[in-house]
Design brief:
Elements (H helix, E strand, L loop, with lengths): L1 H22 L10 E2 L16 H9 L2 E5 L3 E2 L3 E5 L5 E4 L1 H13 L2 E4 L5 H10 L4 E2 L12 E3 L4 E9 L10 E5 L3 H8 L7 E5 L2 H9 L5 E5 H4 L9 E11 L2 E3 L2 H13 L4 H26 L4 H13 L1 H19 E2 L4 E2 L1 H12 L7 E8 L2 H8 L1 H18 L5 E6 L2 E7 L3 H11 L3 H4 L11 E7 L7 H15 L8 E3 L2 H22 L3 E10 L4 E13 L3 E3 L5 H7 L2 H21 L2 H5 L4 E5 L10 H10 L7 E7 L2 H4 L1 H13 L3 E7 L5 H4 L7 E4 L11 H16 L3 E5 L4 H9 L4 E3 L9 H9 L7
Parallel strand pairs: 2-6, 2-7, 10-11, 10-12, 20-21, 23-25, 25-26, 26-27, 27-28, 28-29, 29-30
Antiparallel strand pairs: 1-9, 3-4, 4-5, 7-14, 8-14, 9-12, 9-13, 15-16, 17-19, 17-20, 18-19, 22-23, 22-30, 23-24
Helix pairs in contact: 1-9, 1-11, 3-8, 13-14
Keywords: Membrane, Signal, Transmembrane, Transmembrane helix
Organism: Treponema peruense
InterPro entries: Cyclic-di-GMP_PDE-like, EAL_dom, EAL_sf, GGDEF_dom, Nucleotide_cyclase, Rev_trsase/Diguanyl_cyclase
């Protein structure tokens, strides 16, 4: 009985909408806006490729705050849901949700009183993204804009055939000043322009006969058909809808948005417009009917019309069912879309307890390689087969969908962790399903992760993001069936990395990074002959940070390139000042200062010219800069490393191999590497002289290095016993806490001026 009631109610609702459309000759038009050039006409799924920096940004910013226009229907409007919460709705919000979903970030919408308050929020940095009619935002270097999403024309609507003349009043929405000036050029001087921030009020005035002329956007144009015999004149003025993004987010996020916008095709866009237009018109129609319910003539007309359009209603129901299938069914994977998954999960979680349910994410390893090697069509076939497989693995009380690309997501009750891992292991055996689609020896593997839902009322996308954050840590694990669990420690690490990422550029500008120097001592005469330059960060919020707290992050997000240049500049500046210091003339010999160059830089084809250009800006005299490369780089690309070393030496730099002995083929690379210096891995010294084997290995390495005319440096020297042994077996240079800890530049300068360091 309840089912029948709902169906009848739906029929009447749709019939009422259809009646008004027929009476007023205002059919649904999904093309009241037109896609911009950024929107693709290709209906096939398109691949998005993010750079390493963009991926790092997405990982560090799982949630972004967004504001919009609370009164610009149907593009954007602030509504109150059944729980009393204010939330945005409309075309732009739906588009932005789709973009965020494809990127993998969670939008957090902030309600505002009006668009001016939204603009203030984005200017102050309270929000990172702004929707709305962004042409109205005052110019600012802090706000950048995405490419246009769609364009819409501006029209004059007149109650009669007459055009405005001097003294007439034209009511218009609050367009930008540029567009207002363009509009005014169309009309004679003396025309009065009445501006309203709310376009709905402009329409209401016209419909109710309170004004004879209005200027509105193309979308609102169809609603002017509520007035018969009105004249519509195009003004040859268009605006592009864009999203505004505040710095420092804009630098990375605008290119990300533009990439994703290119994957949204015209069909997706017009489907969104169709759905939102239908919602808006139904609400507009019902409100209009409610206001006129006392009008008996209208009731008679509607009654007759409802009968007339009953069959049309049935057609509309079929159309809506088709649209609903598009929205709720993933044609490629053969299962629910994320929209349906999200709605169903939200309904279940309404009365759930913390950690009663979980999100399980299963992601194909190296799926991009499959697409690149065998084609997107083959990739889609694999997704179809896996969709069938995972749908078959879903239990009756569970949900499953393809979140995006190759990421399949389950929603289920929380079992024992080991039971879950065993189940995922079994689900990962898919050879029988895809054996005909991939080469015989291709082993399709998965990475999987789980988030136990602590906050049932949180956003579903955010829950999946947390699971995927854990998954990223397990991508390189040997046991590909292992399920990685999201923990509070991961959140803490993610927050830490995000805060450092957002402050790193300012830190360079504010010179928060400081170069410390750890002296190097020559064994033959105990003289200081140089130092290693080491980076430190005096972070105003986090305090004094050692490299281990930020260098791994910078290597992942690419900022290490700036840090390495920063260190080189400081080293060259120091050597320049030492060269001009009168004490350097009596010191007796030039000094060498080394610094560590990240492997990230080796893939920069302009590496040597860039470093040479920096060094050429300083007069370092006979002193030398030594570039330290870790031994592990050899195993990345041995041939490339040899070419880089030769290039750096030709440019006047010395080159050393750091952490020598940590690799598996250390002795073998001695004959190939054209390095000037090798620095013995400090782990060798951890058990010297107690460990006779390690002493023998160190002795052998030093003897071979001498025969190859390579200088040896022992770092991590912490005791007199270690120092005496290294001296005895012929090591050239020592570096470590036994002699001196890393020190500030002014303190190292004093060491040089005083002629050396005294040891106990």
């Amino acid at each position: 009985m309840k089912r029948k009631s709902v169906t009848t109610k739906t029929l009447l609702h749709i019939a009422a909408i259809a009646a008004i459309f027929l009476i007023n000759n205002a059919p649904l038009k999904a093309q009241t806006i037109f896609p911009s050039p950024a929107i693709s006409k290709n209906e096939q799924p398109q691949k998005i490729t993010f750079t390493q920096e963009e991926i790092q940004f997405i990982n560090l910013n799982p949630t972004l705050k967004i504001v919009g226009d609370p009164s610009w229907p149907p593009f954007e409007i602030l509504k109150t849901d059944s729980a009393g919460n204010k939330t945005y709705a409309g075309i732009n919000k739906s588009i932005l949700d789709a973009v965020c979903r494809k990127i993998g970030i969670q939008p957090q919408y902030i309600p505002t009183k009006n668009y001016q308050e939204s603009i203030r929020y984005i200017q102050e940095g309270t929000a990172q993204i702004i929707m709305g009619y962004t042409n109205r935002i005052p110019p600012s270097s802090q706000i950048k804009y995405t490419e246009g999403i769609y364009t819409s024309a501006i029209y004059l609507v007149s109650r009669s055939d007459r055009l405005p003349k001097k003294g007439d009043t034209i009511c218009l929405a609050d367009f930008s000043l540029t567009e207002q000036n363009q509009i005014k050029r169309y009309f004679p001087q003396g025309t009065v322009f009445e501006i309203s921030e709310d376009p709905v009020k402009v329409l209401d005035k016209f419909i109710k006969g309170k004004t004879d002329f209005i200027i509105i956007g193309q979308f609102e144009l169809s609603y002017a058909n509520f007035v018969k015999d009105c004249k519509i004149v195009p003004l040859d003025i268009n605006y592009y809808q864009k999203f505004g993004i505040r710095e420092p987010y804009a630098k990375t996020l605008v290119p990300i948005f533009n990439k994703v916008l290119k994957t949204i095709n015209w069909k997706e866009l017009t489907t969104v417009v169709f759905e939102e237009e239908l919602k808006f018109r139904s609400e507009h129609t019902l409100q209009d009917l409610k206001q006129k319910k006392e009008n008996s003539i209208l009731r008679i007309v509607l009654t007759v019309t409802l009968v007339f359009v009953f069959f049309i209603s049935l057609f509309l129901i079929l159309l809506l069912k088709k649209k609903t299938r598009i929205i709720e069914y993933d044609e490629i994977a053969g299962m629910s879309t994320f929209n349906k998954f999200q709605t169903d999960a939200r309904a279940i979680l309404k009365n759930a307890k913390p950690r009663e349910y979980l999100i399980l994410s299963i992601n194909i390893d190296n799926f991009r390689l499959i697409n690149d090697s065998f084609g997107v069509s083959k990739g889609n076939q694999i997704l179809t087969e896996l969709g069938k497989h995972f749908a078959g693995e879903k239990r009756e009380d569970e949900l499953v969908c393809r979140y995006y690309a190759d990421d399949f997501v389950f929603f289920m009750k929380s079992p024992d962790f080991w039971e879950l891992e065993d189940r995922v292991f079994k689900m990962s055996k898919v050879d029988d399903h895809i054996e005909k689609l991939l080469p015989e020896r291709y082993n399709l593997t998965f990475s999987s992760s789980v988030y136990y839902i602590d906050a049932p009322n949180a956003d579903i996308s955010g829950m999946i993001d947390k699971a995927n954050q854990a998954q990223k840590l397990g991508k390189n694990s040997y046991a590909t069936h292992r399920v990685m669990e999201y923990t509070t420690e991961m959140k803490t690490e993610n927050d830490w990395n995000r805060e450092l990422t957002l402050s790193m550029n300012k830190a360079i500008e504010n010179r928060e990074f400081e170069v410390y120097y750890q002296p190097k001592i020559r064994f033959s005469d105990d003289k200081v002959i140089g130092a290693e330059a080491l980076i430190r960060w005096n972070n105003p919020q986090k305090g004094f940070l050692l490299p281990g707290k930020f260098i791994p992050l910078f290597e992942n997000n690419g900022f290490i390139e700036k840090i390495d240049k920063y260190v080189l500049q400081n080293v060259c500046s120091f050597l320049d000042s030492w060269n001009k210091n009168s004490r350097s003339k009596t010191f007796g010999e030039p000094i060498t200062v080394s610094f560590n160059l990240s492997r990230y830089n080796l893939y920069n084809s302009n590496l040597t010219p860039t470093l040479k250009k920096i060094a050429s800006q300083y007069d370092i005299g006979p002193n030398s800069v030594e570039i330290e490369l870790t031994e592990g780089i050899v195993f990345d690309n041995k041939k490339k490393l040899i070419n880089v070393i030769n290039s750096l030496k030709e440019a006047g730099f010395k080159v050393s191999v750091d952490d020598f002995g940590s690799g598996y083929s250390s002795l073998n690379i001695l004959k190939d590497m054209p390095a000037d210096v090798i620095k013995l891995d400090k782990e060798f010294l951890s058990s010297v002289p107690e460990n006779t084997k390690e002493s023998i290995i160190i002795t052998s390495v030093i003897e071979m290095a001498k025969k190859l005319n390579i200088t040896t440096v022992a770092e991590g020297v912490e005791t007199k016993i270690q120092s005496d042994l290294l001296r005895k077996i012929g090591c050239d240079i020592a570096q470590g806490f036994y002699y001196a800890k890393p020190m500030q530049e002014k303190d190292f300068l004093k060491v040089l001026e005083n002629g050396g360091i005294k040891t106990v």
